[in-house]
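Margin note from the TA: students keep mixing up input and output lines. Inputs are the sequences; the output is the structure of the whole complex. Example:
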Amino acid sequence: MEFFGKTGRSARYLVVNADESEPGTFKDRYLMEFIPHLLIEGMITASYALGSKCSYIYIRGEYAWIVDILEQAIAEAKNNGWLGKNILGTGYDLEIYVQRGAGAYICGEETALLESLEGKRGNPRIKPPFPAVRGLWDCPTVVNNVETIAAVVPIINEGGEEYAKIGVGKSTGTKLISACGNIKKPGVYEIDMTISVEEFIYSDEYCGGMANGRKLKACIPGGSSVPILPANLLLKTAKGETRYMNYESLADGGFATGSMMGSGGFIVIDDSQCIVRHTYTLARFYRHESCGQCSPCREGTGWMEKILWNLETGKGKMGDIDLLWDIQRKIEGNTICPLGDAAAWPVAAAIRHFRDEFEWHVTNPDDAQRRNYGIGHYANPIPVPVTA
Amino acid sequence: MADEVKKEVPARFKVTIDNITIEVAPGTTILNAARQIGGDVTPPAMCYYSKLQGSGGKCRTCLVEVEAGSAADPRPMPKLVASCRTAVMDGMVLKNITSERVLDARAGVVEFLLLNHPLDCPICDQAGECHLQDLGYEHGKEGTRYEFKRRTFEKEDIGPYIQLHMTRCILCYRCTYVADQLTDNRVHGVLERRDHAEISTYISKAIDSDFSGNMIDVCPVGALTDKTFRFKNRVWFTKPVDAHRDCENPKCCGKVTLWQRGDDVLRVTARKDQWGEVQSFDGKPGWICNTCRFDKKHSNDWVVEGPTKVSRHSVISQGHYIDMQMPKEIMPEVMGGRAPKLLMDIQDISEVNSVDIGLLPGPATSKTFEKKEQ
């Protein structure tokens, strides 16, 4: 808010980022599909606070049916006088529009989203200026996630202090986690961030344990772009403390031995899965979704994908692993938007924690080609030194 | 707000780049400040073009390290910043070639840019004045580690004057800014995503506009070349000559460089400065119209001013020593008008000169000179 209004322009906008395209994340879909009125109510409140007369929901192109749900919810709100001219006699006018994207992951980046919303090619802008200073049509704009805006309603209803009593430390309030992968009960769970990761995976209240009686091998705790964690580092931090489902605890140990809460896409991987193939799949995704604007991301993501494909199909060399490490290092931090980082981190973490698996693919090319991943070889997670 | 204390903004900002301090006007970008210093301190720029609004930030070759953000807030920035799009702050301390991180990142960017580049310099018209060649030579590593097939594109015809070689493109977006800012109707842009993003016209429409030829000038590589000059000559064999004519088009500046072979005008381009950008005349960029560029290919059409001063470091400067800077002679200044007194003439007293080596039957040895002494 401190950025706001310095440009002296009159119009302000609220844009809700519903372009939820991260692999493994589907919490906003649940909110919009089943409780769209919560989002609309949150938007009306937030728009009133900002003084926005026109607010947008930028929704992912693949969520076509949710557009209808949202538009119906908006029509219902309008019929009851919650939207439109002179809302409830307060003299405040607000219109909410739903804009459907064309299916680009990059349009979830806030400035690319604004470009796309303006009808241009969805390339991220160079920051600064940030959207709060010059956003949509050069006017101050707030871009927030669906979950954030939906959380406005309980915060207003209960009061900020009361809401902040939920949770622990700085991780207050509740968080939606979309759990998927090799677990018995995949789905969207609302947690209060005081439970441990172990409890979240194994308790019947949440994921219900590993499917088919397999062992936990690794987990991506916050959507595909955050670093993967092997089972030993997932359940306990490098210091030996229990890891909890909250922002601080998941990030404990930095990228060397920790990860991030990210977008709340909790992907659990059991011991039948191959980390090299998994990393290749993610690299292919980021290669496909790179906007092609800045060179490290445009060229580097394609290069990483090709090397990972070689490693996965048993055509790789030992030097390829170090080469991958060097490529991700040169992409990370050198790009316009965070997509470069998001493409680099999974590869970095996979090599950091599962290097022996990459090496196994090089030394056993025949087995790798038959996709016989030598499962017994890495059923138990490798101990990682604290200083790694 | 009335009670808000207005901070006094100094008229000139002090910036330190690689331990060289310079004062620049507020609002200057780091790259332009470094260009005022000049030399090796200036980061290379492949996509930034000072005459095109909104350009820059894409190629990432101009990344620099910010050691201190400003005098008011002297914290370093965690990431390298794109110097072409970051404005300087008062008291900013920057590192370009003195930073290992920058050199490492830049070598990476050069490798990325060359990853899908066809390296067909021997048949490329841009060779010799190509910014990517210079960049690879100055900032790249000796080889690539890329072992895969390079991506290619179908050739596409975009009109009678301009040849598009999409395989050579590094997606600097400069030509799209030319299409946006100089021409009347924009038909030229970027299609597709990732490493298959391509510069093109929608549904193979021909580019037909008075100023479309400037796309050729702004293109740092051989992706957009002049069809009237294609395969006619190598640029380093041609003789650049400054010339002008009174162009009917009011937006055209009429000041050009003719690239001649003998008396034939092989090519007409806008005049470029040492950064490879179009020169400004009276504060306006010297864009030229398509009539000047493509139709006036005779010496009689032009008033020749003289040979072009080539100050760029590229191979086109070979054979053009006109703008070469001679080292400064400091001896007369030091002596203050006094002529040095000759104390000893080595020619007179040296025994070596008393032997005529040409008359000796074999090679001269120390004995030859010893005998002379006896």
